[in-house]
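[Automated response] Your request has been received and processed.

Submitted sequence:
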Amino acid sequence: RRVHGERSTVQKMARLAIPFVSLCLLLLLSSCSAVVEDIKPSQLASKLDGAEDALVLFVKPDCSFSKAFTPVYERISAHHSSEPLKMIRVDCSVEKDIARKYISGVPTIKYFPKHLAAGFVGVEFSDSRTEDKIDKWLDGVRRQPSSQLMRESQAPSLPRFSEKSPLRCRCDL
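Generated structure:
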């Protein structure tokens, strides 16, 4: 017999289980989505530590093209969340002299393989900024050996700003 106001053991366990199950689901869902790390340009070299490949988005927070492209980049990071790939967003509105070492305008996406040679400034994506094209480019560039990427990144590039490239700002650094 229960005294009025006492709860059964099952009720107590159920009351404790609900927050526990909720926390477990939250942790599970958060581990499935990729994390985009926001950094300053001076932190980039230390983040490219050679442990994993990195896809880096260079943006300026006040640039409308950067703002418009950020959700696309976050969806791309979600597509690759199960892969050993760092997703980094660099705020180029600060430390512009360091940012110029890597890019000349925003938004810009660059891929950095895990085994970097000294002075390597990444392989730049130069097509229209759609999820599908970036995913295909990333899959292709990740299959190439680092030595080939080094040669390609030193070759003359296509014009930086194309009228055909959506989400491409003429924001200089």
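Summary generated for your ticket: Residues 25-33, 155-168 have pLDDT under 50 and may be disordered. The two ends are 76 Å apart (CA to CA).
If you did not submit this request, please reply to this message.
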